[in-house]
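Help! Submission page says 'invalid entity' but I think these are all valid:
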Amino acid sequence: MSARTSTPPPVEYLGHRVPPLGLRIIVSGLYLVPLVVGLVGLPLAALGFLEAHSVALPVSVLTVSVFGFAIAILSAVRYVVKPSRWYGPMSIVVALVVLLYLFVLLFQATYQFAVPNVTLTVAITYSRVVELLMVVPAFLIAAGIVTTVEDVSGLPTRLAFDFPP
Amino acid sequence: MADVLLPHLRRPPPLYRLARDLRIVAVLVLVIVLFVVALEAASAVEVLQSGPSTSSLSAAFAPNGTLAVTGTFTLRNAGFLPISGFSLAFRVLAESGTFLGQSSVGPFNVASGNMVNLPVAFYLPIASAGPSTSLLTVDQYLSVHLWANTTYGYLFPVSIGSIANKSWGAPFAHYSLLVGMPSVVNGSTTVPVTLSFEDHASFGESGTIDFAIVSSGGTVCGSGSVPVSVSPQGNFLAQRTVPLVTGCSPRGGSATATYVASSLALPLPTESLP
């Protein structure tokens, strides 16, 4: 007991328990639902609300749909391949797609619209917000690179903590 | 055996911890940015609900030969974030689309919970020939273009543009200076002069209108002065008999007039004589 608390145990392979592929696919399918709702459903609902009130859209429905589905599906796939060496590269790909999405938003980051029934036009520039959000995929890319390097040196070490026995 | 029972006591390898920490930082950044955006949106709603407003603009003749249109723009920052670099710019066009004048105020910073009253003033030159002189005699709809630029909070530069049509009542609407047929009485030639207009402006006129009958050659054949005291929406009509200079014919000439008030002399439109 005293040995367990006074000296840290050596890092050693603990073993792991990876869920079978079928279970991972089912879980990723469930994981897909909130992702699609958050990345596609809610933005499209917001765009639909603006369109219904004759307000110009800040970004096209196609852009939101394509990037939203792409990010959601890639994120789900990333979970499926989590026990493999593809997890790191897949994390990088997901983050790159997010970054690309934000770049697309950045290039149209001035949202100009006319208020219906009033001779009023409003232009809001949200490029600073998009730039700040770009920090997020940047960190995720860095994390993906680190995971890739880690997996090259020894995959089971990560699995012991991602899928503990 | 202890490894299997208590795997969470194991310290993950450095690369694993680094990757995990990077993901945690990414999530933290995302949460913070979304929180700030939500905060700014909620605060912006407070500002909009407090209602920026413009007091009704008032117009008056200014001593420097201009028509001064003045008012106050009130901006109250009921939100909990500052409004920085707030500026307003106005441009006024006549109904014909002719540019009349412009004005701007700012930039101002409005701290949270504060209110600023920004004076708005246009000075439209009407003492000299130009498009603004039509404001003296022609009722019309003026096109007022307004632009506002500001940065709300720290993240959102906002610009607002508005076009409003404001009705303008001319102070000398339907202005007329009629010169009748000359007649000879007791050896001297006189001519009847009728001066009339309606005051459609929101302000009255008090002073005199000095007029002159000018021959086609430019010689002043006769002149006179009529006191004027008209309240807003009032009518003015005055008739005078003006003696003419011997040998000077107003035929083919013109009738000129100037509205004279305290330190102000506004030329009114010249009327051609048949």
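Support: the input was valid. A stray whitespace character was the problem, and the output above is from the cleaned input. Chain A touches chain B at residues 4, 8-9, 11-12, 14-15, 118-126, 128-129, 132-133, 135-137, 139-140, 142-144, 146-147, 149-150, 153, 157-158, 160-161, 164-165 (CB under 8 Å).
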